[in-house]
């Protein structure tokens, strides 16, 4: 693994310091070493199961994933892709097919770096909950407390007319996408979408706080809290976190999540020594993917991160561990529990929800039935990315999954649940949604 030696040395120093005996104290009075503050980044997170069959898996789903990815590579719709499935923290399958980009001889591996786009949202949402734990942020706080420009919001009635909103946007509204904000780039022909585009919805030459202030000057689509609508909410949340913490979003995420978990290859913009590991899409894409090798002012909390499978697996394993990974606590179990409470309650309009009457959305995660036809089988919490990446954590079956490709034209084309549950004996194979694809919204295709 290409891990930073300095950070590994720091981790080793922490370990040795924690374990050093105290000569002045008798053995009976010796205190236990403190809990680790960093997971060793030099140690792989990919612990392979000795026998996947013993954990309930056969090769049915994994073989389908391999065949589908090989067919896509042969057709030229993706240069390569990767599926990782684990149960109880033990990896039962890594299916890696193809290469990192057109004309690139390097094969896809768990160290390949992908644009994860909206899979950034769960990370930023966890960082928000950590600030809530620290008393620097409140879920019911109006966001005007941090960005005054959001005071006195108005709702667009139409033809340039507005009315006062019933209340202000709260931090909870941002986390649950009930803010009244939209994505202009995915609704560019609507009246509000045109206003977003004119305000800089697709710009990366200004900061996330600049974008938030520009959005604050625009009307809302609906009263905060009254409906679910995928939007710039997590981008605005990122700006709120910067104000609340006094740190830029990249520094905040590094300190609160990436460094503690040993996620050395997760950034808004790549380091030069990581350039050769960036996965690329096919040359035929009509809308180009982002350019993470070119550093810009924008730190998009809604979709700007890039990560390797190795790194993101550490994050999902932390979620599976109820906020803790290898002894390192990122958030408290009760904070994660709060994130997994459905915010699309009966009084909330869900017409814009990707799955119609099925599932729901918590504070940063989609809450999706394992079987769309039988919700009693349990839910996994999940989110996907614009270029076809996907992740989920299934608490009922203790399963974590990551799927990685780089093509905004192939996003939602792969039957992800089939790859996991078709070969799993503990639960019936889920039925994929018949009409609506896995959500794949990103902040701006031009980035």
Overall geometry comes to: globular
Domain count, please report it: 1
Q: Under the CATH scheme, which class?
A: Alpha Beta
Strand neighbour order, sheet with most strands: 2-1-13-12-11-10-9
The count of DSSP E runs of length 2 or more, i.e. the number of strands, is 13
CATH topology: Beta-lactamase
Count, helices: 11
Full CATH superfamily name = DD-peptidase/beta-lactamase superfamily
Q: Element order, helices and strands? A: HHEEEHEEHHHHHEHEEHEEEEEH
Indicate the proportion of strand residues: 5-15%
Low-pLDDT segments, ≥5 res? 1-29, 427-447
Q: How widely separated are the two ends?
A: 28 Å
Main sheet summary:
7 strands, antiparallel
Oligomer: single chain
Indicate the CATH architecture: 3-Layer(aba) Sandwich
Mean pLDDT: 90
Report the C-alpha radius of gyration, rounded: 22 Å
Overall helicity: 25-40%
Structural class: alpha+beta
Characterize the structure shown.
This protein has helices spanning 5-19, 60-75, 120-133, 171-176, 191-199, 208-216, 233-245, 249-261, 309-320, 333-339, 416-421; strands spanning 80-87, 90-98, 113-115, 154-158, 161-164, 306-308, 324-325, 328-329, 360-361, 366-369, 379-384, 390-394, 399-404. The chain is α+β, with helices and mostly antiparallel strands. The protein has a single domain, classed as DD-peptidase/beta-lactamase superfamily (Beta-lactamase). Strands 2-1-13-12-11-10-9 form a seven-stranded antiparallel β-sheet, with helices on both faces. It has a two-stranded antiparallel ribbon with strand order 3-6. A hairpin with a 4-residue loop joins strand 12 (390-394) and strand 13. Helix 3 (120-133) runs parallel beside helix 7, helix 3 crosses helix 8 (249-261) and helix 6 crosses helix 7.
